[in-house]
Amino acid sequence: MQTLGKLMAVAIAFGGLAAPAWARELTNAQRDAAIAFMLNNTRHTLLHEIGHLFVDQFELPVLGREEDAVDNFATLTMLAEGTPESLQALIDTVDGWIYSEQQTTRRRYSNSDFYGMHSLDIQRSFAMACLMVAHDYDRFTWFATRVGLPHNRQESCEEDLRLTGYGWESVLKPHVRAGQTANSQVSVVYRSHDPAYRDIAAILKQNLVLENTADWLRKTYVLPRPVRLTAEECGQVNAFYDPTTREVILCYEWADYFYELFISDIMDIREHFAEMRKLKLEKLDR
Ligand SMILES: [Zn+2]
């Protein structure tokens, strides 16, 4: 698999000259698509971690598994944003979980997959698709069907959306900013040690991933104490909320994982379907 770190390092080392064959496997369009996929998955992850931050900082009651609840928070927030970009980001995040599940089944399940705090990746993908189709049936029924959610379940997802939407709205209501002038203190930090992740850090910075999330957080909620959004190398593929430092931590390894996942497992399939759609449209035009 090609990592972004390796690819960018080669581009820099060759100073704009033709890169070696293994690094030229991706066209610019493919590389851009992989970066967009990575950024979209990263945005959902940041919101998931902010869900944990809210549970801690607002001392929210959690009925059921916290990991599922904060996944729902991230999905609801992106649905509420409702821009073409945020809706595409949701599609990319569902695909991210579907394809990471396939990697898990290749290594086979272990008990830790079942006793862990998180639902299985495939369950996380279905739960997201369920809220999406309930939010906008006309827009997402094709997608929910494509990921394998049958129509009778798509219909009952309305109740899932109603319950989780009501739950989050109720507990967050007292903390929503309503005209107060003082902004919540949300700082952003990029820590960079290993040069292998310098380029991932640069892409996250260029796209203002942490900055835009921090901005939204400041403008939308009144936080009781200062918090921090950090991107750094963690030594593992993960993202965290650390209650001792009140810090959401996005690991560069996490972003890199989704970049690689797109190239290794998703890119060819998406290109194939785009080609099929093009042929179909050409046929209709004739
Ligand atoms: Zn979590």
Structure description:
- The protein is α/β, with parallel strands linked by helices and 286 residues long.
- It has one domain.
- It has a four-stranded mixed sheet with strand order 1-2-4-3.
- Strand 3 and strand 4 form a beta hairpin.
- Bound molecules: zinc ion (ZN).
Descriptive key words:
single chain, 286 residues, alpha/beta, four-stranded mixed sheet, 11 helices, 4 strands, 66% helix, disordered N terminus, binds zinc ion
User: How much helicity do the residues have?
Assistant: 55-70%
Overall tally of structural domains? 1
Please work out how many helical segments DSSP would assign.
Answer: 11
Report the uncertain regions. Answer: 1-24
H/E order of the elements?
Answer: HHHHHHHHEHHEEEH
Indicate the proportion of strand residues. Answer: 5-15%
Q: What is the strand tally?
A: 4
As a whole number of angstroms, the C-alpha radius of gyration is 20 Å
**Average pLDDT score:** 88
Oligomer state of the chains in this structure: single chain
Shape designation: globular
**Ions, cofactors, ligands: which are bound?**
zinc ion
Q: What gap, in angstroms, lies between the N and C termini? A: 41 Å
| Major sheet details | 4 strands, mixed
Q: Helix/strand/pairing class, anyone?
A: alpha/beta
* Strands in their spatial order, largest beta sheet: 1-2-4-3
